[in-house]
Amino acid sequence: MIRLEDLSKVFPAQDEAAVDDLSLEIYEGEIVVLVGPSGCGKTTTMKMINRIIEPTSGRIFLQGEDVTRVNPDNLRRRIGYVIQQIGLFPHLTIADNIATVPKMLGWDKERTSKRVDELLETVGIDLSYRDRYPKELSGGQRQRIGVARAMAADPPIMLMDEPFGAVDPITRDRLQDEFLRLQQEIRKTIVFVTHDIDEAIKMGDRIAILKQQSKIAQYDTPERILTDPADEFVQDFIGSGPSIKRLSLSRISDIETADWPVARLTDSHDEVREKMRSTSRDHVLLLDEQEKPGRWVGKEEIQHDDTPLEESGRPAVAIVEANANLYDTLDTMITSYKGSAIIVDEGGRYKGVVDFDTVLEAINTMRPHEQDRHMSPPEEEQEQPREGTERDLQDGGEGR
Amino acid sequence: MSSFLEYISLSWDHVLELAIGHAIVVAIALVIDIVIGVSLGVLVYRRENVANVALAITSTFLTIPSFALFGLFIPIFGLGYLPAVVALVMYGLLPILRNTVAGLRSVDPAIAESAQGMGMNARERLLRIELPLAWPVIITGVRVSTMLLMGIAAIAAVVNGPGLGEDIFSGLARVGSPTALNLVIGGILGIIVLALLFDTFFNLVGKLTTSRGIRD
């Protein structure tokens, strides 16, 4: 999709190249994160793709076409661009900001206006903001408008330079989640620059860890970078706790839930006791009419006691959504009563229970082991970018 | 005071005529200054050295005593409108040029970069982004030039230029006579009123042409 060939950049009046002979292939529909210490040339590298910075030598291919010499303005209209400061035009309304590229491409009014509404909806900004100005927005809202503006003409490629760098950590986390969800639908090819390895692990389908002069230390999936760092530089850059970090890459939906007895809050006491007898577990989970987890009831509590079910046992807490990652699930479990977490769907309806042992088992399978160092071709990974995780889990279950 | 009111009530049409001439010569000079100042500013704002030279030359204009300059122009441009306008253009250039350069330079580089990143060429960036953002600063420069030219235009009377300077100079020439003071005060007040009118006008223009998004 994007191919960089022997790309170099030497800035005038500097002896050392900022980017030295970089070759990189970026696959369609993936988020590729360029990450590295400050001054390593990651931003320069990104800005050479839309030629905000003209390369000194080397070639750039987009969709197989050599764009190193084409008209840069036309090239840029095909590439979405989001920078850290966002750079919304303060004198234009939100709608006009978003409509910038469509207007340059000569779209008619109606089409442009429809597209603006569509994008506002996509990034979750109320349509009443159309005629407001950037100064009236919060940092998070501006960031969303920046993304909407970059996507306006539906470019196949987006370049994002620390796009979430200027917002507070809570907003950043939410924006990252939103963006990942959005990417599930839009499947753009995205080059994402950050200095934050945690952000890289979270956002990237593939990560290029860069040393000085944009030399690639490792270009691989987050899983493989964490389990099998190429050298000391990568290891240092990942920092402490690579295994813990890895947990954030696996979803709870990837591991098998434990078999757990459930009953209804509307059931009679005898029905619940019957359930209890037929299981080896010492707790039954009671669900309400909407299938939402209500209470945990223990053997002793139900045996001779006729307290209404709504009040017996303890309230069901430690609830996680099925798409939560293992890191968050583990965190929830640690604070829970019996070391188990209840999994629910987006509507909050019960899906299953996962306990400590199940998660431990999953973690065991992630321990570093020798893997194929070669990057797998995109065809193999395209369908399921996280395929490696699932396979590891299944294999690991038998292997130990 | 009563004698001045009497004077004005008798000769208001004469003062008005001079005031109109004054307004016209200043307006012509301002229009030329805006065209030259803004274009020059656009040409030089990215080149530090060139900009400094342009600013140095235009500030030198301002240091030339106006009386002398008008006098020097007589052999070149003769008498009347022409030497007056040429001199006024020279005096009014600096504030507009300086504010154009400052305004364009004050545009956030991130905004310029995101415009570039979206595929705007240099001309589109200038017309759609940079000039609109610099506009409030440029208008402020125009208002400063207006004030400056209102006063200096009075001196244009030495080259037989139009304007309220005529009354001021003829008043000053016969200090002691009963009408002298009235002539001078009439000229000065006329200039002040004109200045206020022009300033109000440009203030209004500034408000109407500045986007709500960048107004304070």
Task: Give a written overview of the molecule.
The complex is a heterodimer of chains A (400) and B (216). By secondary structure, chain A is α/β, with parallel strands linked by helices. In chain A, 36% of the residues lie in helices and 22% in strands. Chain A is built from 17 helices and 17 strands. Chain A has helices at 42-49, 72-77, 94-98, 100-104, 109-122, 139-151, 169-186, 197-203, 222-227, 232-238, 242-247, 269-277, 299-303, 326-334, 356-364, 378-382, 387-399, and strands at 2-9, 19-26, 31-35, 57-62, 65-66, 79-82, 157-161, 189-194, 206-211, 215-220, 262-264, 283-287, 293-298, 314-315, 319-321, 340-344, 350-355. A six-stranded mixed sheet of chain A has the order 6-7-8-3-9-10, sandwiched between helices. A four-stranded antiparallel sheet of chain A has the order 2-1-4-5, with helices on one face. In chain A, strands 11-12-13-14 form a four-stranded mixed sheet. The longest helix of chain A has 18 residues, at 169-186. The model of chain A is unreliable at 369-400 (pLDDT under 50). Chain B is elongated. Chain B has helices spanning 2-44, 48-63, 66-77, 81-105, 109-117, 122-153, 165-173, 180-209. The longest helix of chain B has 43 residues, at 2-44. Chain B is mainly alpha-helical. In chain B, helix 1 (2-44) packs across helix 8 (180-209), helix 3 packs across helix 4 and helix 4 crosses helix 6. Helices cover 81% and strands 0% of the residues of chain B. Chain B has a single domain (2-211), classed as MetI-like fold. Chain B contains eight helices and no strands. Classes of the chains: A alpha/beta (400), B mainly alpha (216). The A-B interface holds A 50, 52, 73-77, 79, 81, 83-93, 100-101, 104, 133-135, 146, 149-150, 159 and B 108, 110-121, 124, 129, 132-133, 210-214.
